[in-house]
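As a warm-up, study this chain.
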Amino acid sequence: MSEEFGHLPSLNALRVFEVVARHLNFRLAADELGVTQSAVAQQVRALEADLSVKLFERQARGLALTESGRGYSQSVRRAFEQIADATRALRPAPSHLTISVTPTFASKWLIPRLPDFSARHPDVDLRILASERLSSFHNDGVDMAVRYGCPPFGPGLHAELLLEQAIVAVVSPGLLERLGAADDLQTLARYPLLHDAHNLWPRFLDLLFPDALQASARSVRFNQTSLAIEAAIAGQGIALANRFFVARDIQAGRLINPFDATLRDDRGFYLLGPRRVRQQAPFAMVRDWLLAQTRDDLR
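Now compare it with the structure written out below.
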């Protein structure tokens, strides 16, 4: 121990004393510190012996600080606060960024790719807000968003295309094997059609069978595309989804594209951000990573 500071008690004993002084209860202090009550009591006794000062009065209903213990606890607490402040200053807080995305984009595209982002940018704390509603960049603390539609999305917003709208049909291999190919509307009627909020089946059927009258078919409706995709994986029918959202399921053999048809339009998934960005560095990191991921999808 440096002579400049003289003899000091152990830092661990002081930490235990500070916690006991706050709770005035050995059990609660032990719970906070993750040790046993006997270990806490032993540290307190050792500190009192080291200082030759009684710090606590043992009373029938608990503990009470002595006058010396009260003054010492205040000084020790200030010392720990100074150490904590110095440590925080030495370790800059990680950059954080909140991105608002639709639930389907989150579950079927973004989340499977997050390990890559974490590996490339371990110092960025990425916070994901999944919502169909376009969040307020100011009131909700959102830094960027991904939304489906067509620009413009609102005044003061900058939009960049991430994923084009390219709709394909998907079905589980087991259901396709059991019900057979759907070569026309009559054979397609064997399959339940899994709808989402976009209601694209009428347009997709016109694309498949342009000269045929659309026959009624069994259908199940979901409010989110991700639910329709999961239902298709479970063998409950044929779903429509952006091909980028089902690419991994097709690659893994969980789904099959039974038709050689893709429905396209001028809408897509856009990266949105305010024209005046609050956190330039993390915003640029996330933006560049998202764009790089979509470029990889197109290869």
